[in-house]
Each structure stands twice: as structure tokens, then as C-alpha cells.
Amino acid sequence: MMSISNIVVRRGCRKACSSALMRQRLSRATAIIAPPNHHPDLTMCRRQLTNSPPSIVVDRSLSPRQAAALEESILKELQQSLQDTILKTDIRTLGWLKNVTINNKVVKVVLRLPTLLHPHLKELESDIQRIVSQKVPPGFTVQVDTSATQPIPFVRNIQEHTELISNLGPGLSNVSHFLAVYSCKGGVGKSTVAVNLAYELARMGGRVGLLDVDIYGPSLPILVHPDHPEVHQSSLGPGMVKPITHQGVKLMSLGYVSPNSGVPGSGPDGGAAVMRGPMAGRVVTQLLKGTDWGDLDVLVLDMPPGTGDVHLAICQELQLSGAVSVTTPSKLAATDARKGIEMFTSLGVHTLAAVENMAYFECDGGGKHYPFGEGIKKLAEDEEFSKTDIFQLPISTHTNQANDGGTPLCLARPTEASMELSVFEMLAKKVAHELLLLQHGRASSKEAPGSKVSMSIGGNVSEHFDIG
User: Fold this and answer.
1) Rounded-to-integer distance, Cα 150 and Cα 268, Å
2) CATH class of 64-148
């Protein structure tokens, strides 16, 4: 038996074929003729071969023209079939879909997002994999290359962009969003929420910084023990310093500053920060603008308690993208939380979420108990609270142990703290959701599109902003 080609046919098949192509192939084929003294096993083998369909080896590589046509087809399919679930716009119109390339049976989809701090980024990448896999020939591999572009500071009014960048200075020129975490009462867990929120946002893929603005009682050096707590000079300019980077988050606090700086309360073992309001404002400005923050999607500001000079200084120096309120369930604390929301609203800052810390505990029998009452729930129908999502954190020994150990709960991630970690995850996704809307010029999900917010300082309305 002799085979000239990969196509094995019987001699009689030649008469049944009429096309020129098949005649050309059949002319090169050789019939299988059994010898006179054939073996039964060989006969069975020949029968199986002749009854099988032709096995044609197809070259799966594409010509440049075919590859270009397939690339354009994939781009159109992604534009028509895939919308971002938050922005309700296709990824090509958003400018996220940069290109599609095909090389050596590998299809690469290149995404360039303004931030990787997207609550549904993994689902978006999975949808792209699924859609593209249905468009390409078998045997092709689909890759999604996702990265973030350089951050651009968020502004509500594009006409103010140049002035805003100039006012921020070189240290903040590549920070997209500023998020204030505040409370009107001390001791409610504001710093705990700020630290864990920062590390949870970083775990989602965000470029995150955390500034301890509470210069009267800096908590960051207690809650986070960096491997290298020294503050170094920056090459960005005279008087500029680099933040401390620990586990993916950039940190700065008066407690990290050298006690030789001359600032009251500086250093890890610094004494009381006794200073009047104007000096406190200057120290905050120096910590904020004198730090070379680099590229950040969000800078979390751990504000001091109350509604004083530091808060006004921050709102004058920065255009805050939003705020997170922290309170406890007692009626007294919840009432003050409402005042805080009113204050930030009057300054043109929307409170994206309210965290009710130490809200309850669960006993061994599975019951949930509220030892401090349910004050914030009763206020949820209030006009201010009705626009804000509320997240309840339990009384937790795990959180307390993490604070005392200098490793935030969202960084240590003990398995027994799954309930607390799930709340911080939901809070981070909520914040990321709202910041993504703002970054693309959309109104907050809690604000009516086109609504105007008056920014007033000292009782005088100084500016109106169009949100959305």
C-alpha cells in the first residue's frame, strides 16, 4: 500500500466527483488494493480507513488582510455587545478599548482605563474573553491587557481645570480624587475606617494614598507600623518629602515627621500638638502639598473630629470628590453625624456613605444585639440620611487586635473576621462606584442629574457647581 497524499479514497470515488478541485486531488490519490493473500486484520484496518471522513490539515494562520478584517470585526462586536455596567456606555465610546491585535494565533485586547479602581473590572475582562472567543477560529488564544492611564485631577467645572492644577502644586498634580473620612464626635472609629478603607481600595487595584489630617491626635503611626517609617526628601523641589509606602498604600502623618522639625506634636512619641487654628491650617497645608504623592487614584483624608478650621482649610485648598461619615448608633452621635453631612453639603461635598461603627454584636446563639440603640436607623428617613448608604460594622475584637498590632484588618485579613471584611469590601465598592461616575462627568447615584450645589464658606455663597 502506498499513499501519496493525506486524502485516502477508493478508486470508485473518482467517478462520483465532478468538480475540478476534487479531480485534481483524486488524480494524485492512489487506491488501496488488497493483495491476493491479505491478512484479515489488514482488511479490517483498510475498511476502517475507507469508511472514515477525509482528514484535511487546515492552516489556521491568517493573512494580514484576514487578520485586519477580524480585528475590526472584534472591535465592532465589543462596541455593540459590551456596555460598562456602571456608566451604561460601551467601552469603545468611553475610550477604554484601545486596540485589538492578532499575532501567532494570539488575540490581544488592549484596555486603557483611567483607573483600575472599578468595582466590576474582573467581570468586564471575563465578558471580553467570552465575546472575543466566540469570534475567533478554534485554537486561538484571547488575552486582555488592562492598565491605567496617568491620573487627572477631578474638577466639576472644566473651566477651572488650569487654575485647580496650579493651586494643587507639583505634589498633588497627579491625584484624581480627594476623599474625606470625617466624624463630628471623637472616638467613633473614624481613623479605623479610613485606614481599612484605604487598604481595601488598594486591594481592588487602586493607586491609593492616606493622609492623617488629625494633627492634634495623629492615629496613623499607631494603626500602621511601616517597615521603613523614615520620611525622606523628594527631588520634586525644596521642602518636598516622599510619603511612606507600606503594602501598596502611600502614607503621611505628623506622627511620621521627625520631632526635630519644630512642629508641635511631630514624631511618633511627640507631645501634645498645642497650636491655634491658623497654625494648624498651615501645618495641614504643608503635609498635604509638601508631599510628593505621585500618581494616585484617590487620596483618603483622615479628618480630625468636629467642624473647625482644618475642615474649612481642606475644602478651600482642594476640590473634594466626596466624603464618608463615621458615627456610632447612639442618638447623640447620630445627631452630630447629621450636622457633619449638612456641613459638607454646604461646602459642595456629597457624603457618599455613612458608617455606623460598633453597631451591634452577635452572641454565640446567633442573635444580634444592639447595645447602643439604633439611632442612625431612626434617622435614615431624614432628608440628609436618605441620600446616603449606611454600612454597619459590628463590635469586633478582631478589629481591635488589628489596630493594636499595627496591621490594619483589611491588610491582615484573618479568616475569622469575614463579617467585618465583607462590610469594608462593600464600602470600598460603593466609594469606587461613585468616584467612577464623577470621573466620567456623571452625577452621583444619590444626586439628581444637573442639580446644583452651593459652596459656601463663612455663610457667603462663593460658587455654584453643576454636577452631572
Assistant:
1) 34
2) alpha beta
